[in-house]
Amino acid sequence: MSLWITMLAAGAITFAIRLSFIGAAGRIDAPAWFIRFLRFVPVAALSALVWPDLLVGDPGMLIMQPRLYAGLAAALVAWTTRNVMLTIATGMLALWLLQWLPGGA
Amino acid sequence: MSGARRSWRIEMRAGLVAIAPLALGSIPFGLIYGVLAIKAGLSPLLAIAVASLVFAGSAQFMITQLVAAGTPLLLILGSVMTINLRHALYSAALARHLAHLGYGWKALLAYLLTDEAYAASIKRFDETGAADNRHWFLLGAGLGLWCVWQISCIAGVALGGRIPAAWSLDFAGTLTFIAIVVPLLRDRPAWAAMAAAGLVAVAGQALPYKLAIMAAAIAGMLAGVAVERACKSSLETPA
Question: What distance in Å separates the CA atoms of residue B198 and residue B219, rounded to the nearest whole number?
Fold first, then answer.
């Protein structure tokens, strides 16, 4: 039940953010520092989610981190092709290969 | 041509055409979201409700990760707010063009204001011209994406229970984020934001309640702004 309330609130917050300046109808301009800050929101927030998932498990076992290598392979494909689907496909294939190799995690 | 007033039908159809490739590209993410939401323990009804309540792919993926990790609810809210803050940018960019509309229109278009709808519409809005029917373009783009997104999320929810855990499909969420972040690494400030956020997120793993995620996001933004300022001032300093 409380999860439902949380998701309702998450929806309300998202809507409020989207409405913010549209609702103010040009009476309020976004301050320049705020716009500068916002530019880094996607990079920072998503990186905060990605890195811990790539480096899960035993930090002493860096060699045995299939997610790290699969993630780096995907990043390389993303860098060269800018193709989202190809990035995901590469990462998943790499992870499966590394997991199913003999002695894999 | 660009200043001429076009009928609302033409505008709306043009919006649908413009969003079509982006909507097509969102289908796999909708499917993956649905699967991950079920794996994270959301009920099917809640998983589908989130897709229309929040209606933002990256935030929905993040919610599934945080719920699966047992994150306290208030921190889930804080994280959703942090990652969706970028929509304030889009709102600011469109505000001037929508100022003449009534509250109902503004609310509806704000609800439909996603990364994709913004990307598809901003060019049309920036064309010069008198007050016209361009809001119908955004409505067409927004509604087109909304329908495709809801259907693919529901399909993913239906698939959810049938996919074995050994497939590690949760990793697809992380890969989606990688695909979004990497093209954003265009300059030094962006790299700094990525590195700082990653460092704090990994170093802070011992912190309770997944606090590391919000701390890392804030650290990343501050690092980006700081490096941007440093780059600028080094440019302005005469050699």
Answer: 9
Is the model's pLDDT at B2 over the cut of 70? no
Interchain contact, B50 vs A7, CB within 8 Å:
yes
Burial of B161 (0-12, 13-18, 19+ CB in 10 A): exposed
Which pair of tokens denotes residue B69?
Answer: 């990790």
Closest partner residue to A95 (CB to CB) among B84, B168, B214 is B168
pLDDT tens digits, residue range B170-217? Answer: 788 889 889 889 988 999 999 999 999 999 999 998 887 678 888 999
pLDDT tens digits, B35-72? 999 999 999 999 999 999 999 988 998 899 889 888 88
Q: What is the DSSP string of B32-44?
A: HHHHHHHHTT--H
The H or E element spanning position B213 is helix B211-236
Q: What is the pTM of this model?
A: 0.80
Q: How far apart are CA A105 and CA B192, in angstroms?
A: 32
CB contacts, 8 Å: A91 with chain B: 171-172, 174-175, 178
Q: What are the C-alpha distances in Å from B23 to residues A19, B108, B120, B125, B148?
A: 22, 19, 11, 20, 6
C-beta of residue B113 within 8 angstroms of C-beta of residue B87: yes
Give the nearest partner residue to A95 out of B89, B171, B184, using CB atoms.
B171
Q: What is the ipTM of this complex?
A: 0.85
Judge: B110–A6 Cβ closer than 8 Å, yes or no: no
Residue B141 CA to residue B12 CA, distance in Å, equals 7
- Shortest Cα distance, chain B CAs vs residue A39, angstroms: 7
CB contact under 8 A, A14 and B80: yes
Instruction: Check CB contact of B35 with chain A, cutoff 8 Å.
Output: no
Whether residue A43 and residue B82 make contact (CB cut-off 8 A), yes or no, is: no
Residue B179: closest CA among A98, A56, A81: A81
